[in-house]
Amino acid sequence: MEKVVNLCKRRGFVYPGSEIYGGLGSSLDYGPLGVELKRNVKEAWWREIVTGRDDVVGLDAAVIMHPRVWEASGHLAGFTDPLVDCKSCKQRFRADQVAGTRCPECGGELTEARQFNLMFKTFVGPVEDTAHVAYLRPETAQSMFVNFRNVLETSRLKLPFGIGQIGRSFRNEITPGNFLFRTREFEQMELEFFVRPGEDEQWYDYWRHARFEWYVRLGIARDRLRLRPHAGDELAHYAKGCVDVEYAFPFGWSELEGIANRTDFDLKRHSEYSGKDLTYFDEERRERYFPYVIEPAAGADRSTLAFLVDAYDEDEVEGEARIVLRLHPRLAPYKAAVFPLLRKDGQPERARRIYDTLRRHFPVDYDQAGSIGRRYRRQDEVGTPFGITVDHDTMKDGTVTLRDRDAMTQVRLPEDRLVEELVARIERP
Ligand code: GAP
Question: Is the CB of 141 under 6 A from ligand 1?
Answer without folding.
Answer: yes
